[in-house]
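Write out this protein's structure.
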Amino acid sequence: MNRCYLRVLCLLILILPSAYCQAEVFPMGGDRPTFLQTPKDYPAQGTYPLVLFLHGFTGSSAAYERYLHVRDELSALGFLSIVPDGSKNSKGQQFWNATPECCDFENSGIDDLGYLLGLIREAQARFAIDPQRIYVMGHSNGGFMAYRLACEAQGLVSGIISIAGANFKDTNLCNFPVPLNILQIHGDADDTVPYGDGQSFPAPRASLQFWQKLYSCHDEVSAPLAIKLMQSPNTTDTQADTDTFEFTSCQDKHALGFWILRGGPHTPAFIARTLFSESLQFIEKRASHRESTLDKRGKTVMP
């Protein structure tokens, strides 16, 4: 009998023995409940990668499910996923206490760092997770929080993807940076967290310069490989809209990338499957793959 059919029967009418069933959604998080979703083949064999996805300021896990179908897209790619909710301020707006720039504007001091690290540790204790493939991905305020985890997770996280987020403006506050793979995705028409040199937030290039120095990367980066990440009004338009750059010769061959969305606003209309598959493929790169990719693309100077 089809395994998916058995799973549905177990969930809906609860008549089959538990040995035949494997739930796809698991509650977790204690006083701040959320849940972890597994791929449909879990636990077929071995260990699985985990993605912790963080919403933007005023957003929610439910809103980002409507926006990007996060859990289902990650499950389809073979990842376990956790998509938690931030805390609410006095206006009912959800936020993450990430950096001084964003977005605990009422100075609540809530320990989101401890909460998120706790979720990762709980997931590791309960599920077959590859400790070398734990990633944090976030949009806007969630991207800021991803950078904070890069600074303070002390090796628990293997890579981050920040979409329209930024690092600490005062990089001295990045207390315990441990080399990991980093990808910054930013629209050059973003007027919320500006693409150019901003006053309120670090520009994306400034966010990456800290890590470039930490990793002793060269100033040169791979020549852009253009891909299409955003939806077009013309559904037949397949023209690339994103230039991808990668710093070269980084210490221990860690990946450090910068993807520029041409004309991209703060909240782009992404092609969700392409966004997740392309960005996670980059962040999961191993040294041999990175070297062969760079050899094929050549080198140029980042704009």
